[in-house]
Write a structure and sequence with these properties.
2 domains, four-stranded antiparallel sheet, alpha+beta, three-stranded antiparallel sheet, 2 helices, Immunoglobulin-like
Length: 150
Amino acid sequence: MANIRWTRPFGSNPFAELDRLQGELNRLFQAVWGPEVARRPAGVFPPVNVSEDRDNVYVRVELPGVSPEDIDLAVAAETLAISAKRKTEEAQPVSYHRRERESGEFQRVITLPVRINPGAGAATAENGVIKVTLPKSEDVKPKKIRIEAS
């Protein structure tokens, strides 16, 4: 009777075949569209920074070229929705050699780290950066507990 030893079908790394497939797809895209497609990062628009202190959550949104009148902010318990429209700058049709700055409508919904008070937020715009200040809800703010000695 022959002893047959069982081995894993893909060696020691079960994802090796997926890595090989991704490499093949990257080479295919580079052959068709050039090497810069593989280096281009897949970003999320608009880019945001979210920070907080004891009383507020701060959201900074980069929207260059968008007028503050074309931006809508909607806030709920733990989410902030940003929608806007970037208008095209050209009055006549042109032929682009490179176009990385899109125009049109977009929306992004951000989950905030804590529940906020939706009725008391404020926003300012300066140099294409929207700064949103959202006060935290009173029930999520830290409370001090007094220790009584007996």
